[in-house]
Amino acid sequence: MSSKLVIPREYSKEIRAMVNGTFPSKPKFTEEQYPKLDGKVVIVTGGSSGLGLEVAKSLLGSTNAKVYIFARDKAKIDKAIKKLQLEVAQEYNKKELNVHSIVIDLSDLTTIKPAAEEFLSKEKRIDIIIHNAGVMTPPLGSKTKQGYELQLGTNNIGPHLLQKFLDPLFIKTSKQNKPGESRIVYVSASAIFHAPKGGIHYADPNFKSTKAEPFEIYAQSKAVNILSAKYWTKAHPEATNVVTVSLCPGFLKTELQRHLVGFEAFMINKLVHKARLGAYTELYAALSPDLTRSKTGSYVESFGKLGKDRSDLDVIAAKKAWEFLDQQVEPYL
């Protein structure tokens, strides 16, 4: 039986997001301002292509962080690392890269524990986690290995499980860091303004029978990214040095749009900016001293400034979404 999809509209915020995405201001927090991150370990999921690759390149070129790329295709990761070695040498005049990789498929929950265990066997700290990997508007009916709607599974449930395995070491590391140095970044999108009320369509979260546009289903997953950022510190009150942030990186040309067709594809190609600019949004969220503990749960927009998400994506909604995600990952812990 179909259940009606309710989408609250906040047109003033939505219009503001569209204008900012189309005509963003220039990034003000850039490489020369990044901390050196000596001895720090950073994880970038989806770092083998698109925006994630640009984030990894900027980190490797302008900081001394040890960067881990988490992605699902070993051959693609190896190709990406070769590309990074070449481009970092050219753009930053830096030949030695402290880059490593872990193979993980966020759309298959059975791969996540082995991947996390592999990482934890190699490292004694985690300072920054950037949940960048994601999928956007795949063909309707696309599912994960466990039968979840592909975007909900890949963009939310998989990252939630991964974070669970990383939490103990991440929290331990945060207690050694200064306030705000430990960060979790969830990459969302301005699509949130088309998400179901409260973020998740709980009556049918996998959209098995509910009529919805592909972009609305994608929007649900991006709303959950925001809710995860808002609730992580609530769920971990002992982690007093941690800042969690969500963001819309900007209207960018990346592989994420590969499933778009027709008018949507045409408009995206007319409006998008280079992925490199979106990396400034993510690294503002991950590194900027402006984002203190008091700003935890904030929403950042292109290309590195505080923005406004939707009013109903509040702490109450975040708690409900967190409990939903917890239920989904429990069998895989």
3D architecture notes:
This protein has 333 residues and is of the alpha/beta class. The chain has one domain: Rossmann fold, CATH 3.40.50.720. The chain is built from nine helices and eight strands. The protein has helices at 11-22, 50-62, 74-92, 112-122, 150-174, 214-235, 262-271, 275-287, 315-329; strands spanning 41-45, 66-71, 99-103, 128-131, 182-187, 242-247, 298-301, 305-306. An eight-stranded mixed beta sheet has the order 3-2-1-4-5-6-7-8, with helices on both faces. It is globular.
Shape: globular
Number of strands: 8
The CATH superfamily name is NAD(P)-binding Rossmann-like Domain
Helix-strand category? alpha/beta
CATH architecture: 3-Layer(aba) Sandwich
The CATH topology label is: Rossmann fold
Number of domains: 1
Radius of gyration: 18 Å
Gap between N and C termini: 32 Å
Percent in helix: 40-55%
Tally of alpha and pi helices: 9
The fraction of residues assigned to DSSP E strands is 5-15%
CATH class reads Alpha Beta
Q: Give the spatial strand order of the biggest sheet.
A: 3-2-1-4-5-6-7-8
Mean pLDDT: 94
